[in-house]
Structures are given as structure tokens and as C-alpha cells.
User: Fold these one by one.
Assistant:
Number 1:
Amino acid sequence: MNNESKTMVKYHPDARFLTDFSAGTLPRAQALCVSAHLHYCAACRTRMRELTQLGSELFLLQHPAAPSASAFDRLLGKIEVLPPQSSTDATPDYPQKNQPKREELPRAVAKLARGSLDNLSWQKIGRFFSYSRLPVSDAKHESSLLNIRAGSRVPHHKHVGDEITVILKGSFSDSEDNYGIGDFIVRTPGETHQPVASQNEDCLCLVSLGAPIVMSNWLLRLLMPLINRPRYG
Amino acid sequence: MNQSEYSEELAYPEDNSGLWTSCIARVAEDRDKAAFRQLFDHFAPLIKSFAYKVPALEQPEVFSEELVQETMLKVWTRASTFDANLASPSTWIFTIARNMRVDLLRKSSRHIVNTVSIHADDSNDDSLDMEDLWFEDENSDVFNQLVQQRTRTMIRESLLKLPSEQAFILKKVYLEDKSHSEVAAELGLPLGTVKSRVRLAMTKMKLILDR
Ligand SMILES: [Zn+2]
């Protein structure tokens, strides 16, 4: 891109999301969204490193608790029987010390898709939308990938639960702003909006929805006006 | 509020980063068990304490010992990936312990109780570990050893000066495996109050910039 501002992420997770993520307490579906945002956002990765430093300072302030007397010997026993290749180094994709590439899918999404989005099972709804439910969920949220055909308009809808959207490809806009790759967009219950995918390319989003909402029902309700033939009724 | 489980005097142990860095290097290069023992003696008790803080564990002793084993085993196998330019030894080990704690909890019964699957077909749980979600420290000129040291000094100095209600919540979030929402529920405070206390603390430590 020749225009630097076009590649800048505008919408970031707030302090609460970043803190809970760095502490490891963010619900899993939401953690997946923050992780996807971090793939695109160097500023938040820096925040995350600082917050982890904070965590480690708190860790050092704890009262130590002595491990069992045999703990170290047991550890040595495990080390003795490690297979040779794992005794020295890590899995090939770890650690991630280079800056992630913007044109690639976030690492966690790529792993779920086993490298290619075509490996996922996609449900088509009408001509303009398809989604793939991801197996990452927690008590209150679930996650999906949603693909919106270029130029399509999502019907006006009301949010019933917290919803996080991270754009992975393309862009969309609503009455408030334009959103691009990496943007982390939070909608709270009661807010309404009407996103429109940009004309020139499909928009692929990672979405975390507040449960219990069955994804297909939610999408059906959302997309009903667009469906010509009620194939999923 | 019971704060006795944390150091009252709020004094940091002597900074032995240089020693731990050389221990990790000896483990990586020479598979040096004496150096590994030094790391173990210092960090294992902190890891065990960190494990014990998880509330409502069915078998806290078993869980804590397991976290010590799993974390220190990773320290051994991953030692060659440690880079002092990217993280201090204690931050590196804390990160491993935290990721491992999340993964162990998820795989334990606590996870099954807390996250009831919504769909029948969710029984094939995803294979993502914390490492898949986490970003290792990366090579970049904006985050080097100097910045790391400065951040640490800033955190240490301001952490000791934080009002106790803010420090208390930070400890709950970072050490006790509780999200903002869970801390709010436990203390009977609105979520907004917990969020603003954390935010105030972060602002004092200059960790969250207002955007
Ligand atoms: Zn960001």
C-alpha cells in the first residue's frame, strides 16, 4: 500500500481486554479475537509485552511455596527420557520472533484452518454470505469466520450479546466509520449498526458472539431478508 | 480484604537477571544440570505459589506440582530460544508458567465445569494452546533491553506506590486467574469500577496510553 494510513489499525482492544488477555483470563473465544488483532497491530503487541512484564513483577512479589522434596529428581527423570529432538528445541512454529505478515492469516486462525480456509466447512447463506463456525468457544461466547461478498449490505440488526469483530481481509463500513484489516470492533447489547462490505473485495471477519446464541439461528435472523429461497427454514 | 498471601513489605528480591540469564545459557549450550538446579531452586517455589492461587482447585497440591514440572520441563527444552534482549529471565519463565497454567486448567475438570459446550458437536475441542494465541517477543528496534529495563523500573516504582485497592485487583487478575468480570462479581463491585481501577493503575504505570 502506498498510503501508510491505510495500513494502520484504528480500533484496538481496550485496557480490560488487553489486561485479561495478558493475564490469561480472557474467555477463549474473545482471546482468539485479541490474538488475531495482535497479528496486525504492533502497538498492541508492545502493550502486551509491557503488561506481561507487569504480570512477572507481581509474580516475583509472591511468597514462595516449596515444591515437594522429590520434585527436582522427578524432573531429571523426565529429562532423561525426552526424545532427542525435543530435548533441545521447540516446535518449528515457536517462537514467533519475527513480525507477523499482514497478508497472512493470524497464526491461530491458520492453525484452526490447517493452513487454508478451504479446509474449513463453510455454510452458505443466500448468495452473499458464508460462515464457518470455529471450535473455539467458552461458557459465554463462540466464534466463527464470516465472509461477506463484496458490496453486500448486512441488514439492520440489533445486538443481543457482546459481539467482537476482527477484520482479516477486505473492509466494511457503517454509519459511523470505515473499518479495515486488523480493526477490533466491539458492539454491546442494544447497539444497532448496518455494515456494508466494500465494493472491490470480499470481507472476511473473525466474529465472537455472546452465547447462548446458536450461530445459524443468529445468521438466519440476521440475513433473512436476503435469502430468496428458504433453504434453511 | 485478605492481602496476607502477598508480601506485605512489597520488597523485590535482589535482581539476579544476569545470573539467571547465564544459567539458562548453560542449560541451552551444555545441558548443565547444576545451572538448571539453580533456576529450579529460585523459580519453582514462585511457580508453585502461582499455581496455588487458582481458586477452587480440586487438588491444589497435585495441580501445583504438575505446573512446576511442566513449566520447568519447558524451561529445559526451550532454553535455546531464550533471548535476553527480548525478555528478562523472570518474564520469560512467568510467561511459560502462565501459558501452561491456562492450558492445564483448560484440560482439567475445572474447564469442563466452567465451559459447558453449547453444541453437541463441540466435543471435538479445538487444539489451540496458549502458545498458539500468544505472541513471543519479537525482534524489533522498539523493544530492546534498554526499553525492557526502563519499563521494569517504571512498573516496580509505581507498583509500590499504587493505592492498595488498585494493587489488590491487579494481583487478583494476574495471579488468581480471575477476569475483570470475575473480580467484579467476587468483590461485589460493578464491572465498570473494576475496569476503571485497573485503568487508573495502568495509567499510573504508563502502560496504557490513552488513544
Ligand atoms: Zn491494537
Number 2:
Amino acid sequence: MTRQMTGAKMVVQALKDQGVDTVFGYPGGAVLPIYDEIFQQNDIRHILVRHEQGAVHAAEGYARSTGKPGVVLVTSGPAATNAVTGLTDALMDSIPIVVLTGQVPTFMIGTDGFQEADTVGITRPCTKHNWLVKDTNKLSEVIHQAFHVATTGRPGPTLVDIPKDVQFATGDYTPPAKSRTDHYRPQLKGDVAAITQLVELMEAAERPIFYTGGGVINSGPQASLLLRELVEATGFPITSTLMGLGAYPASGDKWLGMLGMHGLYEANMAMHDCDLMINIGARFDDRITGRLDSFSPESKKAHIDIDASSINKVIHVDIPIIGDVAHVLEDLLRIWKSRGRKVNKDGLKGWWEQIGKWKAVNCLNYTNSDTIIKPQYALERLEELTRGMDRYVTTEVGQHQMWAAQFLGFDEPNRWMTSGGLGTMGYGLPASNGVQIAHPDALVINVAGDASFMMNMQEISTAVQFRLPVKQFILNNERLGMVRQWQQLLHGERYSQSWTESLPDFPKLAEAMGCKGRTVKDPAELDDAIREMIEYDGPFLLEVLVEKHENCFPMIPSGEPHNKMLLGDAQATDAIGDDGAVLV
Amino acid sequence: MAALKIKKGASRKSAYDLRDPHAEVIERHTLAVVVDNEAGVLARVIGLFSGRGYNIESLTVAEVDHTGHRSRITIVTTGTPQVIEQIKAQLGRIVPVHEVHDLTVEGAAVERELALFKVAGSGERRVEALRLADIFRANVVDSTLESFVFEITGSPEKIDAFADLMRPLGLAELARTGVAALARGAE
Ligand SMILES: Cc1ncc(C[n+]2csc(CCOP(=O)(O)OP(=O)(O)O)c2C)c(N)n1
Ligand SMILES: [Mg+2]
């Protein structure tokens, strides 16, 4: 039996049938019929953002912290273009979100109508897939497909563009179970022969390492559990990308810390010197590999990824395994156990001794001060004072983001939300709103920089409206710190435009929007300020005035391999050659 | 600091790839891509090639299964073996793409292209053009006292060769379809 309803009603019905409880959005002319339906129901909560970019990042935060798709509803033209950064961000970081946009009526498409934009054209390269629906009878099926594509295989953003006349017209509703999704079915099980080959290498390896990424988290909680079991059972060291933090606990004794450009010395050195690299759900991003022709020169490499195009894209691997992390790890463990749980004990012993020497370098060491708050110290205190709490952390982009990744520890997946692939300043605050919506009772902290915060600071107003007790932890160095660091290291200390003049009074700014604010600049008062932030029952902005010219180390300079890391300022002068300077 | 010198071979594709991209051989492959014939599918395929910096030497597309709404896109592309593998994997990732076949490696294949040549001239040159057309088994599909339009089918190389011959004989305009290709045999 088919049910007839208007396109606008179908949208709401389809969302309900997909189990959606929250939509992040902003109304406008081309979606008024849908907003009218939203008004007349109570199952789906609509979170009114202050800018469409904020809606998409909030949906990302929601998705990342729950594993469920985030949903966005915005109007045509400028609203759709405002969503583009968030879509690109979600595509780069493989975050499942479904964005619904309004469009001018079908008969006006192509006439440069008011608020018309070629939304599917503009968003084609920044979505996993998108659709323009011209027939109300097809609308519900397309929405169900959009959810299927966003959440299946390597997750990503999808977009459905809905002309206004399609929303007004009446058509047949297709429920999820009857919607055609069969032709998009990425392979989940890995090739058993390849997995067995990997097991053979694992049995013999002297210097193995697990290099894990966001794919473990995207694969779901089971993948993290299997990863933990595998690491404990084999005793191999493990490192992770920025995106994969929390899949293996930071408190675990096999944990080497994050790797990459600002990763830990022991993690990068182990990657460089290993003889077996097992990449699980990471993608050999350039922030990870450093200089390609000297990337881990001695190792055999295996790569587990659900996306075949990630394999052999930049790094040639010896054992490619296409499949879902959880499925592959299950087979891997089973095969490894059935063959007698063998590892090269002598090799591993020597390997851990070597790792111990690298750890002893204590690469995150910094010179503290009792007159000025060092950003590293601020994060150490934040970590200390929030340990054991039901805590979620988002970040903006810059030095503070890297320090947060270095100094905060994550023992569970889905607790750390940051813009990795795109590096989007302005991600963290709206993302923190999205996380808090999904976890109303949790402590949600956005570790922010002064400049990034201002890119989407209007979203404080959203937090206030919906009583989201998000905490904005701003490390204010009055600089575009990361830009300044590169200018110091690469451009002869010519600080072109990286000094932010006339910054606002942040607490007053917060107060103007109804959020509580405080500034702290004395290290002795930091703990008290952090405690006030945590304990305050509502949104809170804590501005921490920090050392202005602190650099973030370790750092693999552009164009250098992993074993050429800079550990501190003394090494940094003229460390980056001309070849490196052209790289990003 | 010295002026920036971009080292020869620094790739545009990866910020850290300082390897010489010419170190590997460039291969030419013919790919057959079966897609849902839905709006925008060609834009997705072309956008992939331009967005990721891949080459397109030739591209043809038409619906081949009206009831199933399937189209077949034939793409001739060039690149290192690694890039060709990437292209296939990236094509396979596009949601409305059903099959990607590399006809260059999946056994023998036939490749054909159709071209229309307008050759204008009179006297000896006109006679010579007609004679050569005959040798190449080109058909005359239009003629006036000063011109012919020849239709020719064959491999791209054959069409190139015919074009070289027609150029001094008054080649005025040339339209090519691009390559259509199928694997040989019953499968
Ligand atoms: C939207 C956007 N624009 C520009 C950049 C380039 N960028 C990267 S980090 C950075 C500075 C960030 O400053 P701030 O938020 O204060 O963080 P800090 O590095 O000082 O901790 C800039 C401009 C970016 N990543 N994103
Ligand atoms: Mg700053």
C-alpha cells in the first residue's frame, strides 16, 4: 500500500523512518514548506544555528561522537554555498552527514532565479554523492539512498537538492525497506589469502608497528575492541593519526602517541625504522608520511582500507586488504590464533628496548614558566582536571589543535572531534554544539585558538538558545600561531599578517551573547579557572592568555623524512630547505 | 633565505612527492565504464579527471541499455601504472558507476572510431583525395563540385594516418567520435 503525501511531509517522514532525532538547520524561502512540517511535529528536534557552515560542522560533531549520520536542512543559493566548507570537511574526514537543500522550483531552474545556485554542480566534488530531485514520487527513495550512501562503506557527506514545487506537490511515499540501495554495496570482508600473508609477516616481524587511523573509529565500536585485543595479544606497538585517537587507549602501555608532522618522536622514529607496518584505516596522508621517497624505507607494508582508491595512492604497499576494519580484524585475529599465536619474541624485545630509548628523549618536554601560562601547561592542567570525566573534546585548527592532540589522552573512540584533512578553522565551536546535543550530560570542551574561534563565534548564540553547556577553552596567543610558526621557520621571521590586532574582549563577547566568560593569565590561577569552567552549569568561555611565541614541537619539517624531526627551537633555525618551503 | 626553487620533478599531486614523475613509463589505457544513465553522471566522471589531474585523450558516451538505463563511457587515458590503477579505483568509487573495465589489460580488445572529413579542392587534388579515400575504405557521404565529406571508421591510428594524407589535399574540417571499444571473444 503506498501512502500519498506532499514532498515536504515526505522529508519529515523519511527522516523519522531513518531514526533521525535532530536536524541542524536554518530556514529560508526555498524550504518553507519543509519548515512548516517541522513546526507541526515533535519527533524531530530542530537546532537553529546562526550560519549554515555551523549547521554542517554541528552535524559532523553529532555524527562523529555517536556514529550516527548528522542531518542538515538549509535553503537554496547562499545557504547551500555556505554549506560547502562543511561538506568538504566531512568528505576529507569521512564523516557521514546528509544535507537537504531547498532549490528554486523546477520550472525556474536555469533562469538565474532569486537565490538559485547550481547546488548539485557546486557540491558534486565535495559530496560522496548528491541528487537533484525533480519528481515528488522519487523524493523519499532518494532521501533513503542518501542515508545509505552516507553511512555505507567509507562514510561521507551526501546532499539532496529539493526544488520548492517538489515540496508542495503530492506523491507516493517509499519506506526505507522498499528503497533501492542494492547497487551500492562496498565489500566488507577482506581477502583471506591476503590476511593470511599478513599473519605470516606478523609472526616473523622483528620491528612491527600498527599505524591506525579514522577508519577504525568509522568502522564502529567493535573495530576498536578488536584492535585492542590484537594489540594486547601480539604486544606490538601502536601509533595513530590525528583522526584515529581513542581507538586504542592513550593509557595503554603499547601506545606510542600520535604520529605525523607534529607527532611524537617515538611514534615517528618507530614508523621510520620498523620492518612491518600495518596500516589499519589510515590513508598515508602527507602530514603522516613526510618525504615519500624516504618514508619507512626498510618495511613491508600492509594496508587495510574499505576504500580501494586509498590503497597504493601515494605509498606502494606489499599487502593490500580491501575491507571493513572490524571484519578484517576479526579474520586476522582468528587466523593468527589458529596458527598458534606466534610472534617473534626476541625481535620484539629488542624493538621495545629501542622504543624505550626514543621515549626517553621526552619529546613533549617544554620550558614552563610561573609568570606566563604556556599553552602546553594549560592543556596538561585541562587533562589533569578532567581526567575520568565523561569528556568529549573538539578543536579548532592551529597550534592549539596539535598541542591538544599531544597533551590530551583519549581512552575511548568517538571522544575526539577535529578537522584533520581539511584543517578548517571554525570547525570546533559548532562541532562542540553538535556533540553536546548528542550527549546532553557530558562535558564537551572546544580547545580553540583566538583566530579560529572568531571564524564561527556566532554559534555561541546557538549554544545559549539551546542551553548547551559547551566549554570554549581558548588558548589566546594573539597570533595566527601556526602561521607565525611557519613564517619564523620558513620566511625569515617576517610575520606577514599573522598578528591579530584589535582582538575582542572574549569574555565580554561571550557575555553579550548570554554565555559566561572569564580570562586567566596567571599560571597560579589556571586551575581555579578551569574548575570554574567545568563546574559552571551552562556555556562557558575561558580565555587563557598564553605565551605568544611558543612553537609546536616535535615537527617534521616540510620535505623531510620522519627521522629528521625537530625537537625544539634550537634545532629549528634554517632547518627547512628550499625544496621544503614550496610544500604546504 | 634564497629565492624558492622548485626542484625538477616536484609533483603537483602530493605536497611531499619529490620523486621524478618521469622515472616511470607512461602507459595508454582504454577504460570502459558502465554507469547508471542519470543526470550529472558524465560530469562526475569528467570532474574526477580534471579535479585529480588525470589525462583524457578521448571520451565517448551513449546509453547502451535503454530498459536498464545504463550508459557506457569509453575513456582513453594515459599515466604511470600507479596513476592508471588510481583512476580505476577512483572511478569505481563513484556511486552510479557499476563496472570499470581496463580493456588494455583484460585481454584483446577491438577499438574503433568514426570520423567525418571535409576535403575541399578541385582538379588533381580532388581526384587524389577520392583515390586515397577508396584505399582507406572511406565512404563519400556528401559531395559538391568543390568538396567531399568522407566517413571513415577504424582504429585511431588509421584515422590519424588518413588525416595526415588529407591535410595537403585540402582538409577543411574534421570531426571524430572518440574511441568505442569492446573486449574480443564471447564474454
Ligand atoms: C578557514 C581557514 N583559513 C585559514 C587557515 C590557515 N591557518 C591554519 S592555522 C591558522 C592560524 C590559527 O590561529 P589560531 O586559531 O589563533 O590558532 P593558533 O595556531 O594560534 O593556536 C591559519 C590561519 C585554515 N586552516 N583554515
Ligand atoms: Mg592564536
